[in-house]
Design brief:
Dihydrodipicolinate Reductase, domain 2, alpha/beta, 2 domains, binds nicotinamide-adenine-dinucleotide, globular, about 450 residues, Rossmann fold, 7-stranded mixed beta sheet
């Protein structure tokens, strides 16, 4: 167990945690309604590691597996206060009803609370999300003024809460690559003054958060904080960041299956993934420029897991194809199919088919909640906050973020071990290697 002195290195979660959500759509409203349902004892926080997960401490023979939330000082769900921004004026109840993820009966029970959360006007520009027309938006003479308005929103909210975390649950923006404006804080700030086209709305929110020392999570595949300027700002202000794009459905399964094939040295020569979904996210992804952003994020995992440079006989020529089809009748109830062409002993071919009938926002809501709670923890753990990038949160993300020159870990089980060992480490507990020889002494 942790020593008293080491425990003291993580500040306690005292008072209220303010959660500022950018984009109050399907995922965000499912998270907010879910937290309120759990607070009232109407449902269980299934899918949330911070709420349901345990962590083994010491030897297997010691039988010590406390709940994670009892081991590390996480904010209590009762201490969370939500606010947010959206380009539409709908309050959280109206938006949740529109998203049709949760049943009307449960929403009706939560209505008085959900109606109190009304979005603040958003920073938005249709250039970056072609399929949306925002009406509830901030105005300013340049991007600097818009960033200042978000900073003012954060400062106003801070008067009501003790700590703040920001999470992007907004739409997928068009595909963008880093340019000169992203290379340093100075260049970025100059770009805000001149309204450089390289600065997307998500980056204006992230800049505002990090400038204020507020941790920032990115649920979408947007470039956002994946640029030197914002990594630098995150470090400078000890405001944790953690990668992008919630790992929920198809990529979650990919990062489970691919490590299994690799562990057994089974070859793969093709992986075809297709999806149908009919929510607003699906509509936004129907635009080729937003789809490209998502595609890049989804493609990365296999390349890193299979390490074709180490195993050319097994993985050198994988044909990896991803399709997302907007199909309105399905709403949030996405269906994903994978056809995986594998080969075994002496090269004999086999196939595996995966058909995942999932619910997008039901999978994403606990991921968003955990990211918020763990980023708040990281902010209170000086040895984590000073790093800026929190690689240990890769577990939750399709595109993990790492320090320069380090390849990301996509294997879900390596990510899970990394996460739990990080928690043991910050609490001064012994790391678990799974070596296990000591039991046979
Ligand atoms: N649900 C999943 O399993 C999953 C997995 C990975 C990533 N994501 C990503 O999470 C994000 C949210 O997904 P969703 O299903 O809730 O989508 P959604 O379309 O229901 O919600 C997005 C909300 O963001 C708002 N928005 C867009 N631009 C904004 C801006 N600049 N400022 C403020 N609000 C803005 C929209 O009006 C909308 O209400 C998407 O980018 C999606 O790709 C979702």
């Amino acid at each position: 167990m942790a020593t008293q002195q080491q425990n003291g290195q993580v500040a306690p979660a005292k008072g209220k945690l303010g959660v500022m959500v950018v984009g109050l759509g399907a995922v965000a409203t499912t998270m907010i309604a879910g937290v309120e349902a759990v607070r009232r004892g109407l449902a269980k926080p299934i899918g949330s590691l911070t709420q349901m997960g345990t962590i083994r401490l010491g030897k297997r023979t010691e039988n010590q597996s406390p709940l994670i939330k009892d081991f590390v000082p996480l904010a209590d769900l009762n201490d969370i206060v939500f606010t947010g921004w959206d380009i539409f004026e709908d309050n959280v109840y109206e938006s949740a009803a529109h998203a049709e993820v949760l049943k009307p009966q449960i929403l009706a029970q939560l209505k008085p609370y959900l109606e109190t959360i009304k979005p603040m006007p958003a920073v938005f520009d249709q250039f970056y999300v072609k399929r949306l027309h925002g009406t509830h938006v901030k105005k300013g003479k340049n991007k600097r003024e818009l960033a200042d308005q978000v900073i003012a929103d954060i400062r106003e909210f801070r008067k009501k809460v003790d700590r703040v975390v920001m999470i992007w649950c907004g739409s997928t923006e068009i595909f963008m690559e880093p340019t000169a404006v992203h290379q340093s804080i100075e260049a970025f700030e100059k770009g805000l003054e001149t309204s450089d086209a390289g600065i997307a709305p998500s980056q204006i929110y992230a800049y505002a958060a990090l400038s204020e020392g507020v941790p920032f999570a990115n649920g979408a595949p947007n470039l956002t904080v994946d640029i030197p300027a914002l990594v630098e700002l995150s470090k400078r202000n000890a405001a944790p960041i953690c990668g992008k794009d919630f790992k929920t459905g198809q990529t979650f399964m990919k990062t489970v299956l691919a490590p299994a094939f690799k562990a057994r040295m089974l070859g793969v020569n093709g992986w075809f993934s297709t999806n149908i979904l009919g929510n607003r996210d699906g509509e936004v992804l129907d635009d080729p420029q937003s789809f490209k952003t998502k595609e890049e994020s989804k493609l990365g995992s296999l390349e890193y897991i299979f390490q074709p440079e180490l195993y050319p006989d097994l993985y050198k020529d994988i044909y990896h194809k991803i399709r997302i089809n907007y199909y309105p009748p399905r709403g949030d109830e996405k269906e994903a199919w994978d056809n995986i062409d594998i080969f075994g002993w002496l090269g004999y071919p086999m196939q595996l088919k995966v058909n995942f009938l999932c619910r997008d926002s039901i999978l994403a809501a606990p991921v968003a909640l955990d990211l918020v709670l763990f980023l708040d923890l990281a902010k209170r753990a000086p040895q984590l906050a000073s790093l800026g990038v929190q690689e240990w949160l890769s577990f939750y993300l399709k595109s993990p973020q790492t320090t320069d020159g380090l390849y990301p870990e996509h294997d879900l089980f390596i990510q899970s071990m990394k996460l739990k060992n990080t928690l043991r480490h910050v609490m001064g507990a012994e790391l678990i290697t799974h070596l296990g020889l000591e039991y046979y002494d």
